[in-house]
Amino acid sequence: MLRFIVRRLIQVVPTLLLLSVLLFAWLRSLPGGPAAALLGDKATPEKIAELNTVLGLDQPIPVQYVKFLGRAITGDFGNSLITGEPVTTEIARALPATIELSVAALLIAVVLGIPLGYLAARYRGRPLDTTTIIGTLVGVAVPVFFLGYLLKQWFAVDLGWFPPSGRQAVDIEATHVTGFAVLDGLLTREFDASWDALTHLVLPAIALATIPLAVIVRITRASVLDVMGSDFVRTANSKGLAPGTVRQRHVLRNALLPVSTTIGLQTGLLLAGAVLTEKVFVWGGLGTLLAQAIERRDYPRLQAVVLLGALVYVLVNLLVDLSYAIIDPRVRVR
Amino acid sequence: MSALLEVEDLKVAFTRRGEPDSVAVDGVSFDVQPGEIVGLVGESGCGKSVTSLAIMRLLPERGNRVTGSIRMDGDELTALSDGQLRERRGRDLSMIFQDPLSSLNPVITVGLQITEVLTRHRGMDKKAARAEAVELLDRVGIPDPRRRLDAYPHQLSGGMRQRALIAIALACSPRLLIADEPTTALDVTIQAQILDLLKQLVAETGTALVMITHDLGVVAGLCDRVNVLYGGRIVERAERHELFRAPRHPYTHGLLGSIPRLDGPPGEDLAAIKGSVNDNLPWTSACAFAPRCPNALEVCTSVTPAPVEDGRFLRCHNPVGAS
Fold it and tell me: CA geometry: angle at A220 spanning B113 and B161, to 5°?
């Protein structure tokens, strides 16, 4: 098991290297550039060339890449061209917000998705199933930002149940320990701050959860249907086991295998959804950093955030593979 | 002696919206005496597996219609509630399936798959159930049973898996065991072992066995009485020796003729039954077997043969050996 983990972690290195090369080349092939974006209306070819020299962007791309790599190995990803701060500092500040949002969204998706998918399969063809299928279609089809604005309009502006944006009310005094607002409140016993952060979290988490929720429901439903028709479930029923035992021990355990893969893949995609959700709810996490960086062609920040996203994706899928080894005894990791 | 199991006029039809029902079992009646071994024999699609699943009430919940009567100890199984039936399944009647690999849950241990029956029906606690499971595995001939309890199905050989399934089915000493082609998925050498084991176990425990098979060789070594199914109906039923000595229905005759004989001349062609199940005529206005039957008369394609009970049960206009 340990050898498997170590080997998989070592495999991460070439993956990230390849991605960094592609990313580097791709960024620099985009029209415009940081100099043009920074100078805005005042840009003249001379000024752009001057600024490019200052930023080191006049050098050949391979040279730039080697320099980038050399610094990146020491953990230095350069300074943001927008704020001038080290991008690692920026990321460290924004990361908890995005993790908090993603975890909340994933919790909603998993906690609702698996039971819903199971019930849909169990009552296949009945109204509950039909409603669920239509609901998941809508969930996948509605763009995240559109749903975000709808939720905000209805539940924040019209009904006033939840705050419309931000992570915390400005008038709340909260001590920052970990950067996770809800957790900080609990740790410092500032429960009002926790509650406030939680109410801020609800709408964006729902908006971000819709797509993974819909996908998890669908996969769970299909998987449960598949397993319910299998021979070993027939055997379990032939033994006269209680329906609850058949359901949990025989149906669900087997049905969750493909679901865990799906959860892994969806976790990787959350960052993409977070960019849009954070924009709508002025969340101030990695998504916001990334969106800004794309608009302003902030190469250092872009490179760091995208590579971090890739790293998370790879690690999450490693976790999924490990979960397989736990759920399914036929999978032995070596 | 009153019958342990009485199946009367069992009909199973698969229904699909917008399509005519497809009748898989068409008025099957037979009985099983306590401790008896009864064979249900026929080729693929003759309704033998569907009959067994209907007895266990394990057919899919939807898409089929089951009528007729299935009585065990005089209790009408078709009238039991789902809960009442679950009380009896695994305890009074149990079943062994064709493919031992897919019939065992791949993600839990063999031990748990045995003990869960014991805790369910015999009220044992975990420890007692484990001890009993070791006994059971030992009885079905699995070496080193204590270690096998913690094995997963994929870690056992095909023969051992089937032995484990037999252990599960016999865990509560049921009075009726239904075995649906239990040796089809196994190697020939293992087949013989499993059949011997079944024979020995039912003899020891007094369990009645319904053996479902397409293989008359299995029947020959095992069954007391044999029902031959064709097209969803029983076409012949007789005591085993009678059936092998003098098959009356042309279909039974054909099945027996298709078995290679060790004492036959070398190079002899096996007799085949011509045609396939697809040629069947509807029982309602003919004999379903008529298009494939060497003995077919004109009447066979226009009149349903009435069942005759004369020492043996027979459904044929022109049986073999009739003048």
Answer: 25
Q: Which positions ≥6 away from B27 have C-beta within 8 Å? A: B9, B10, B11, B68, B232, B233
Interface touch B102/A240, C-beta < 8 Å: no
CA distance B251 to chain A (A): 31
What is the predicted pLDDT for the residue at A34?
77
* Residue in chain A nearest B57 by alpha carbon: A238
Say what the pTM is.
Answer: 0.80
The domain limits of chain B are: 5-92+174-314, 100-173
pLDDT score of B94 more than 90: yes
Q: What is the dihedral of CA B72, B78, B83, B84, to 10 degrees?
A: -30
Domains with residue ranges and CATH for chain A? 93-285+307-327 (1.10.3720.10)
Q: Which residue of A has its CA nearest to B98?
A: A231
CATH of B5-92+174-314, one of 3.30.70.790, 3.40.630.10, 3.40.50.1980, 3.40.50.300: 3.40.50.300
Q: Please give the Cα distance from A271 to A102 (Å, whole number).
A: 8
Q: Is the Cβ pair A239, B117 closer than 8 Å?
A: yes
Whole-number Å distance between alpha carbons of A98 and A186: 19
Q: What is the ipTM of this complex?
A: 0.88
Judge: A239–B90 Cβ closer than 8 Å, yes or no: yes
pLDDT given at position A84: 84
The pLDDT of residue A174 is 67
The answer to whether residue B234 scores a pLDDT higher than 70 is yes
Cβ separation B86–A231 shorter than 8 A: no
The percent of residues above 90 in pLDDT, for chain A, comes to 15
- Comparing CB atoms, the residue among B106, B108, B121 nearest residue A240 is B121
Regions of chain A with pLDDT less than 50 = none
